[in-house]
Design goal:
29% of the residues lie in helices and 21% in strands. By secondary structure, the protein is α+β, with helices and mostly antiparallel strands. The chain has one domain: Aspartate Aminotransferase, domain 1 (Alpha-Beta Complex). Strand 1 and strand 2 form a beta hairpin. Pfam families: DUF1801.
Length: 134
């Protein structure tokens, strides 16, 4: 049975050094985007709430890249295949999974600073969007 993590520290301790470095880099971008987020463990991963609503989750499971899942919590219905209306991703960094859920991958450490800044800007725009038009 997979380990169930109660805290972010437990989650981090269970990661390989390379994976932990990637998760910590993504956590730093999230904190830079919005220092007021509350970091918790939900869905057995580091997750972030804003005003009590789940908005971001780090997905480090499997062998693929560490991803940040951007969502609007669990109370809103999700339509897979529906066209998203979010306009805060001018560089096309997001991969859409439904009308209210997208993901982005951690930029490689050797990427230019403007790519990192673009990731922070997308996170900020996502958090500013209440999703009320969905």
């Amino acid at each position: 049975m997979p380990t169930r993590f109660e805290t972010v520290d437990e989650f981090l301790a269970a990661q390989s050094p390379e994976r932990r470095a990637e998760v910590d880099a993504l956590r730093a971008l999230v904190r830079e985007a919005e220092p007021g987020l509350v970091e918790i463990v939900k869905w057995n991963s580091p997750s972030y709430t804003l005003d009590g609503v789940d908005r971001l989750t780090i997905n480090a499971a499997g062998r693929g890249p560490v991803r940040l899942i951007l969502h609007f919590g669990t109370k809103r219905g999700e339509q897979k295949g529906a066209t998203p209306t979010f306009a805060g991703d001018p560089d096309g960094l997001l991969t859409w999974h439904s009308d209210i859920r997208a993901s982005l991958t951690l930029p490689p450490a050797d990427e230019p600073v403007d790519r990192r800044d673009a990731v922070v800007a997308v996170i900020q725009a996502w958090l500013a969007d209440s999703g009320s038009n969905r």
